[in-house]
Amino acid sequence: MAINTKGWFFATGGASHIVLATKNKGKLKEIAVLLRKRISELRPLSDFNSAEIEETGASYRENALIKARVAFQSSGWASLADDSGFEVAALGGQPGLNSARWAEKEDGKRDFAYAIARIEKELEKKVVIETDAKFVCALALVRCDGEERVVQGEVRGKVVFPPRGTNGFGYDPIFVAESEKITFAEMDPSAKERISHRAKAFKTLCDKCFTQ
């Protein structure tokens, strides 16, 4: 890889090694695919720091940057973090920034089947079967010299019930993107990669920060 002199950069040496601030195995796998041609190694933050990161930001962008900074400080590597959320129009944009917290059960463990059931119950209260929704993803990248860049992507569509599909993760089984007929969880991962919120954010990030 070479320095991108037209944009912000992403380049050689240690910068080709990135630590990802996530414990989500599905997310790690998806991001590894999106970056497979641009970096030589992607490692999870848990290899350097097992502490829970407190997400205190008021936006996806702020939370992503908080996590990327912690990953950079813990590892000394160039660091990448994403903060994403699922926003349901009929629920006023919930769960939104609290998308992961909606999946937390009383024992503290996360179960997205539980979160999906919560959404269904809330929609039933409003006598809504289908509603507009969107996925949002913010990506924060911290270079080895501490410089930072944040980008964002989103994909719009609708909520459907019952949940369908076993691919993907999180809220994928109840989301059908615009112009699609199947849920994210029913899609082949390569098909989702082309249209997802995360893919759009990565395209922007790579266009601005990477060259091959």
Short description:
The chain has 212 residues and is an alpha/beta fold. 28% of the residues lie in helices and 23% in strands.
Question: What this model shows, in words?
Answer:
With 212 residues, the chain is of the alpha/beta class. It is built from five helices and seven strands. Strands 1, 2, 3, 4, 5, 6 and 7 form a seven-stranded mixed sheet that branches. Strand 1 (17-20), helix 1 and strand 2 form a beta-alpha-beta unit. The chain has helices spanning 25-34, 60-75, 112-125, 189-195, 197-209, and strands at 17-20, 41-44, 78-88, 95-96, 131-142, 148-159, 175-177. It has a single domain (13-209), classed as Maf protein (Alpha-Beta Complex), CATH 3.90.950.
Strand segment tally: 7
**Mean pLDDT over all positions:** 86
- Unreliable runs, pLDDT <50, ≥5 residues? 1-15
Instruction: Report the principal-axis shape.
Output: globular
CATH architectural grouping: Alpha-Beta Complex
* Structural domains: how many: 1
The radius of gyration is 17 Å
Strand content: 15-25%
Percent helix, as a range, is 25-40%
Largest sheet: 7 strands, mixed
CATH class: Alpha Beta
Element string (H = helix, E = strand):
EHEHEEHEEEHH
Helical segment tally? 5
Structural class: alpha/beta
Question: Span from first to last CA?
Answer: 5 Å
CATH topology: Maf protein
